[in-house]
Design brief:
This protein is an alpha/beta fold. The protein folds into 2 domains: 234 residues, Rossmann fold (3-Layer(aba) Sandwich); 215 residues, 3-Layer(aba) Sandwich (Rossmann fold). 33% of the residues lie in helices and 21% in strands. It contains 14 helices and 18 strands. The strands form 4 sheets. Strands 5-6-7-3-8-9 form a 6-stranded mixed beta sheet, sandwiched between helices. A 5-stranded parallel beta sheet has the order 15-16-17-13-18, with helices on both faces. Strands 10, 11, 12 and 14 form a 4-stranded antiparallel beta sheet that branches. Strand 16, helix 13 and strand 17 form a beta-alpha-beta unit. Helix 2 crosses helix 3, helix 2 packs parallel to helix 4 and helix 3 packs across helix 4. The protein is globular, with a radius of gyration of 23 Å.
């Protein structure tokens, strides 16, 4: 069925297997063909779960239990997958093949698009999202932001009637944000595609959307209507519930000027890369001030995440060296890449770009206890640390949940908390505010500010202008992507 899709959601809800509370419930929506819906709500309100339901990706009774129904063009979504394109919150979840061009073509091939048409669709989709890499580039060699563009290109190449986007600009630099919005606008203008989009950067999309739907944390719909009307009538309440309302400022202090301080970490003629034969950046002579917050900025693909992992001792230097200050050194060894894992634990803690990569336990409580137990703290000390972090990051009600069942924003807060639990002297974070609602963002940044006030050194890779404003005492700007 060509053209834009129609969506009907009647009393729909979903409870994941093993979870005490439903991810969402009681949702009633009618989305007419061609509507452009911005889906908002506090972290954990069920936004990503609803998108997965619209895409027909939620499994059977072994994965969870659904109530109500969802229809796309009058049919169950699972039977209309060729009409539905979904870009998930984690871009790696949508990568299937090892080469960029093959991955973008994968959806078209599965929809039996004539072979002669696929190369032009691939080229058009890749260009529209600004993914300026060779089509034979290995997908594993892409940065997080490039993977975000790749996932969107693969969906756009299929030309769906219903386009579902979950945080499509979360890991993108400012230029990438503009390119992705332009690409989505072009698709909608050409085909009138029905669009449902989750995005914490509401100011980026608000003027393009015809409708805002806000999910209530306890279930159902909190607000629904044109963006200007919803934000005018419910702005204060939405901000209090964690929604990023355009124009509302964050009430956090900005850091003062950085005085003279020693370097906790420094680099000498450093060359970095994920693979020995691929140098991402070279000749880096940098200093990370002790007891201060440093932000690492720059375009996608410039090597920000690679630099962070190298500073943290998790990637070896390709040439040159990372040097830790003497008080931070382990066994008089000043190069973090040569420290043992237990030595890193209390010296440099790392929060990865993908939170799931650092989860080890079956519950949040046990996850937060991993570090303290490895340091052989007493049970009482461990419980005190775990309880404090659960409370400070608004995760106490989920203490017994499996980390992998959390929303994206909750996973990010947990990943930060697991590092803080071991009290390292240096904290390295890759996109720490990804997927956060307004309330979670504020608590997370305030927590990092407090850690700096206590004398810890913080290094944050970020594209978030507000993080730079409120956390950036010192800035490292990486160069253009290769």
């Amino acid at each position: 069925m060509p053209g834009p899709a129609r969506v009907d959601v009647d009393g729909w809800g979903w409870r994941y297997a093993g979870r005490r509370l439903p991810a969402t419930r009681g949702v009633d929506l009618r989305i007419e063909p061609g509507e452009r819906v911005l889906l908002l709500g506090a972290s954990g309100a069920g936004k990503s779960t609803l998108l997965a339901g619209l895409a027909g990706l939620l499994g059977g009774s072994d994965e969870g239990e659904a109530t109500g129904r969802i229809l796309v063009d009058g049919h169950a979504p699972a039977s209309r997958r060729g009409r539905i394109g979904l870009v998930q919150q984690d871009p790696e979840a949508g990568i299937v093949l090892s080469k960029v061009g093959d991955d973008v073509a994968f959806g078209c091939e599965n929809l039996a698009v004539p072979a002669a048409q696929i190369p032009s669709r691939v080229a058009e989709a890749v260009a529209s999202v600004g993914l300026t890499v060779p089509l034979d580039r290995p997908t594993r060699a892409l940065s997080g932001g490039q993977k975000q563009r790749l996932a969107l290109a693969g969906v756009l190449a299929m030309r769906p009637g219903l386009l579902l986007l979950d945080e499509p600009t979360a890991n993108l630099d400012p230029a990438g944000v503009r390119e992705v919005r332009a690409a989505v606008e072009a698709v909608v203008a050409r085909a009138g595609t029905t669009l449902v989009l989750i995005e914490h950067r509401t100011a980026v999309w608000a003027d393009f959307m015809t409708r805002v739907v806000v999910l209530a944390p306890g279930g159902g719909v909190l607000a629904d209507g044109p963006p200007e009307r919803v934000f005018a009538a419910h702005g204060d309440a939405l901000a209090d519930d964690g929604v990023w309302v355009p124009g509302r400022r964050i009430d956090l202090p900005s850091p003062g000027a950085l005085g003279a301080t020693d370097a906790a970490l420094s680099t000498r003629r450093l060359s970095i890369g994920r693979e020995r034969r691929t140098v991402v950046a070279a000749g880096l002579d940098l200093a990370v001030p002790e007891g201060a917050a440093t932000v690492v900025t720059g375009p996608n693909g410039a090597g920000k995440s690679t630099l962070a992992l190298t500073l943290a001792g998790l990637l070896p230097e390709l040439s040159g060296e990372v040097v830790a200050a003497r008080p931070l050194a382990a066994r008089a060894i000043t190069r973090p890449s040569r420290w043992r894992s237990t030595e890193l634990l209390t010296r440099i803690g790392t929060v990865f770009q993908e939170p799931e990569h650092q989860f080890l336990a079956a519950t949040l409580r046990d996850e937060l206890a991993v570090g303290p137990r490895a340091l052989k703290m007493s049970a009482a000390q461990t419980d005190e640390i775990v309880d404090d972090l659960l409370h400070r990051l608004d995760l106490a009600s989920l203490a017994l949940a499996n980390p992998f069942t959390l929303s994206g924003g909750q996973k990010r807060r947990l990943s930060v908390a697991t590092v803080l639990a071991a009290s390292p002297a240096v904290i390295v974070l890759d996109e720490p505010t990804f997927g956060q609602d307004r309330r979670g963002w504020r608590e997370l940044v305030a927590l990092l500010q407090r850690e700096v006030d206590r004398g810890r050194t913080v290094v944050a890779v970020t594209h978030d202008a507000d993080v730079i404003t409120h956390l950036g005492q010192h800035r490292i700007e990486m160069g253009d992507a290769a």
